[in-house]
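Pasting as-is:
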Amino acid sequence: MKDTVEINFEWDIRVPIFKNMLILKQLWLAIGIPFGILLVVLLLAKAYYGILLIVLLMLFTVVLVLIVFRGTYDLHFLISGKGILCENQSKQGNRVKKLSIITFLIGLIVKNPTAAGTGLLSSQRVTVLIPWKRIRKIKCVDKQKTIMIHGDFGENIVLFCNSENYEEIKEVIAIRSNSYKK
């Protein structure tokens, strides 16, 4: 469907990683639950050395995120006639790509295919575009000024808005995505 008016919204935002509830919830699902289960198993097995190593690894990871990414998730959003684009801001995108290459190379050197694969995959989601026709679900969280966009399998974007653009962006997405539904 062709629109007579071309829309074009663009903004940058820095989201604090350890202060945003949505990011913390995702970190808990991805890291907290698996490592929590592992810690319980190690505790039951009285493998205190293993517990210490995992806790130190977690602390090292937090420090690394604070140093490398300055504790923020720096994003650039573009809403246009093509769809919704989310990408890391250029400086942070470059850091992600460098860390991905380093992880890949270390994985190859130590002959660890999991680490090498992680390095390859981590650089793939630096830029995500969901065309309007593939948007399946939209969820708005007014309190956090976020809009979750779900496209086809594995296509998800969280739009972190600010107080000035949230209502307008929410309205544009609702209107535009509905124009593609049959």
